[in-house]
């Protein structure tokens, strides 16, 4: 690409020569003019394209720079000598868009943006409350036989959270029980209280770790799946299709999932408790030379049924939390490709955070009630 | 063209001339979009070759293939803009990949491309923040980012209202006239076909091959087969007398 400048009266003629291709940077229009000593005498800019070869967008970019420069410097920009094609493209590029942009968004002050963020957070909170209300309303109508549950979805969730979830729950619970027992063995043996490791394992698994670890596993596994399923349904307008039939997406898609998980979580918690205690017993028997009878005896004496029931109760609450967080995030999914991923991530984070918070609240209440 | 053992189309042979607007037309399920995928290198033909200025696209080594792809642009049916990137980033990505232009020069080219499709000022918008028609225009800006020699369009008017579709047709014509771009369009939109096409190829789903190639107006006035007549006149009328006898017989045997 070549650029040659010459002046005719008060018009600067820009001679454009050679091939202009996108692969090579174009010269800066403003520098070309400002580098000239007699730049001040120029009143207009014209072009000579007799030597111009092949051209593409790079030439248009250069000419647009020129147009903008001339506009800023109040110079006349002469397009007469440019080919009809080039002039038309320049006209097109400078045309006012059919849809004007709302410039307010870009100019918003910090206070405005903070206010918008606050309103957005408040809207999200309201949406959570509304969603909870819809779920409760749907559940009440189910109990009063005023709605039909989609049993197929319900049983799919039950199946997915029973046999489907067992391998991972088994592995994690076994390892958690093993870890608690190992820690107990190391610490308690120093005080000659190795026998009480079974108490630690039993109490820890039944009251806390069984339900908590199952909850965390299910938040990552099922909560994310709920969000992804409902998110995909939202993107493909399946949720809208239900709404336009005058039906409730909560009745059709949300309640079966929440009820399925609510039913299965306590059962999974009981299973996790047993597997965790089994893991703990293996460590106790091998490291502390306790017999199986001694371990079970040491477990059953201090650990009560209330401890086990508290864990099962926690499991039910966690099931509700995971189901609701997963379904809510799924229904709040945006409409771009990354939205489903974000919904699933958000469901897991929300689920785990709320599980841990709920666990602390339940423990505090249990202490208050003497359970 | 085939999916596993299922043959979709056979005996396809045609050339696209430099600077023309070539339309691949046919009914739903006739294999138009599949043919396009073969032309842009996403699929390999079950038999035969696709030559791009003498280079066998299917068998080309990686550098040759990349060189060919550099000279092509594709507008997908749904735009296929990358949703995690702004419109400016979408258009800039091919320029960054294939040129060594500095960022400010890329930004200028991106602004120009978006301005040419009527999206000046929308650089920082994400695809999900604009309408379907605007998404398609932004996708056109991305497809044309590197000033390709050949632009492929898959159903450009699908999902657009007639006015927006017509504007997109105008943009296609503008691209050809301004840059001399060769344009290949897959379409079954008759208004668009008659407006933009220099030549059109008809894929016949029943005969599993191409049954017509030529100026769409000529094909409508002198249809070589009943299927072409029906397609181009959007009718279920019986064959006019101008249809060659063998094609009418072929139909009556089915």
In terms of topology, how is this protein built?
The complex is a heterodimer of chains A (371) and B (254).
Chain A: E1 2-8, E2 11-20, H1 29-34, E3 44-48, E4 52-55, H2 57-73, E5 76-77, H3 84-94, H4 104-107, H5 110-143, H6 151-160, H7 166-190, H8 197-235, H9 238-244, H10 249-287, H11 292-300, H12 305-331, H13 339-369
Parallel strand pairs in A: 2-3, 2-4, 3-5
Antiparallel strand pairs in A: 1-2
Helix pairs in contact in A: 5-10, 6-10, 7-8, 7-10, 8-10, 8-11, 8-12, 8-13, 10-12, 12-13
Chain B: E1 2-3, E2 6-7, E3 21-26, H1 32-39, E4 51-52, E5 55-56, H2 62-70, E6 72-75, H3 87-98, H4 103-116, H5 132-143, E7 150-154, H6 162-179, E8 182-186, H7 190-196, E9 199-204, E10 209-214, H8 216-221, H9 226-233, H10 245-253
Parallel strand pairs in B: 3-8, 3-9, 6-7, 7-8
Antiparallel strand pairs in B: 1-2, 4-5, 9-10
If you had to describe this structure to a student in words, what would you say it looks like?
The complex is a heterodimer of chains A (about 375) and B (about 250). Chain A is an alpha/beta fold. Helices cover about 70% and strands about 10% of the residues of chain A. Chain A has helices at about 30-35, 55-75, 85-95, 105, 110-145, 150-160, 165-190, 195-235, 240-245, 250-285, 290-300, 305-330, 340-370, and strands at about 1-10, 10-20, 45-50, 50-55, 75. In chain A, strands 1, 2, 3, 4 and 5 form a five-stranded mixed beta sheet that branches. In chain A, helix 6 packs parallel to helix 10. Chain B is α/β, with parallel strands linked by helices and about 250 residues long. Chain B has a domain at about 80-145. Helices cover about 40% and strands about 15% of the residues of chain B. Chain B has helices spanning about 30-40, 60-70, 85-100, 105-115, 130-145, 160-180, 190-195, 215-220, 225-235, 245-254; strands spanning about 1-5, 5, 20-25, 50, 55, 70-75, 150-155, 180-185, 200-205, 210-215. Chain B has a six-stranded mixed beta sheet with strand order 6-7-8-3-9-10, sandwiched between helices. In chain B, strands 1-2 form a two-stranded antiparallel sheet. In chain B, strand 7, helix 6 and strand 8 (about 180-185) form a beta-alpha-beta unit. In chain B, helix 3 (about 85-100) crosses helix 4.
């Amino acid at each position: 690409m070549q650029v040659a400048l010459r002046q005719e009266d008060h018009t600067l003629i820009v001679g454009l020569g050679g091939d202009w291709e996108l692969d090579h940077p174009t010269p800066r229009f403003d520098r070309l003019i400002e580098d000239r000593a007699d730049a001040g005498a120029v009143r207009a800019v014209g072009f000579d394209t007799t030597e111009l070869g092949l051209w593409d967008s790079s030439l248009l970019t250069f000419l647009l720079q020129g147009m903008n420069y001339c506009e800023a410097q109040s110079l006349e920009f002469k397009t007469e000598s440019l080919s009809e094609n080039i002039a038309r493209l320049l006209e097109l590029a400078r045309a006012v868009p059919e849809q004007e942009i709302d410039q307010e968004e870009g100019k918003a002050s910090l206070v405005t943006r903070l206010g918008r963020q606050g309103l957005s957070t408040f809207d999200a909170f309201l949406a959570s409350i509304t969603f909870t209300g819809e779920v409760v309303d749907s559940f009440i109508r189910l109990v009063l036989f005023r709605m039909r549950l989609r049993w197929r979805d319900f049983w799919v969730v039950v199946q997915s959270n029973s046999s489907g979830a067992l391998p991972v729950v088994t592995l994690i619970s076994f390892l958690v029980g093993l870890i608690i027992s190992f820690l107990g063995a190391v610490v308690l043996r120093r005080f000659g209280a190795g026998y009480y490791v079974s108490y630690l394992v039993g109490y820890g698994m039944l009251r806390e770790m069984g339900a908590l670890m199952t909850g965390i596993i299910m938040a990552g596994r099922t909560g994310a799946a709920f969000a992804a399923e409902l998110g995909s349904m939202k993107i493909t307008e399946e949720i809208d299709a239900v709404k336009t039939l005058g039906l409730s997406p909560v009745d059709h898609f949300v309640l079966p999932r929440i009820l399925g998980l609510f039913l299965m979580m306590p059962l999974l918690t009981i299973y996790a408790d047993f597997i965790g205690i089994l893991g703990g017993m293996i460590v106790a028997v091998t490291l502390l030379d306790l017999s199986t009878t001694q371990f079970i005896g040491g477990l059953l004496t201090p650990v009560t049924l209330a401890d086990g029931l508290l864990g099962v109760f926690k499991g039910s609450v966690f099931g509700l939390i995971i189901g609701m967080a997963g379904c809510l995030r799924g229904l709040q999914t945006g409409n771009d490709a990354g939205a489903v991923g974000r919904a699933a991530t958000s469901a897991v984070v929300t689920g785990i955070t709320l599980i841990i918070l709920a666990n602390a609240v339940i423990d505090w209440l249990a202490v208050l009630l003497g359970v | 063209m085939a999916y596993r053992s299922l043959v979709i189309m056979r005996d396809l042979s045609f050339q696209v001339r430099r600077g023309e607007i070539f339309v691949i037309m046919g009914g739903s399920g006739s294999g138009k979009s599949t043919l396009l995928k073969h032309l842009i290198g996403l699929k390999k033909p079950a038999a035969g070759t696709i030559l791009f200025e003498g280079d066998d696209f299917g068998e080309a080594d990686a550098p040759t293939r990349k060189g060919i792809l550099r000279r092509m642009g594709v507008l997908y049916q749904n735009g296929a803009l990358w949703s995690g990137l702004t419109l400016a980033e979408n258009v800039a990505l091919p320029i960054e990949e294939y040129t060594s232009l500095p960022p400010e020069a890329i930004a200028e080219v991106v602004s120009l491309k978006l301005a040419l499709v009527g999206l000046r000022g929308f650089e920082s918008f994400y695809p999900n923040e604009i309408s379907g028609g605007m998404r398609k225009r932004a996708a056109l800006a991305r497809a044309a980012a590197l000033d390709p020699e050949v632009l492929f369009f898959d159903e450009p008017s699908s999902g657009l209202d007639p006015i927006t579709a017509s504007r997109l047709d105008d943009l296609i014509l503008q691209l050809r006239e301004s840059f001399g771009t060769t344009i290949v369009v897959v379409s079954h939109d008759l208004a668009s076909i008659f407006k933009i096409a220099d030549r059109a190829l008809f894929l016949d789903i029943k005969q599993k091959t191409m049954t017509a190639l030529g100026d769409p107006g000529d094909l409508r006035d002198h249809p070589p087969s009943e299927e072409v007549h029906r397609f181009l006149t959007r009718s279920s009328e019986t064959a006019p007398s101008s249809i060659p006898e063998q094609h009418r017989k072929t139909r009556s045997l089915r």
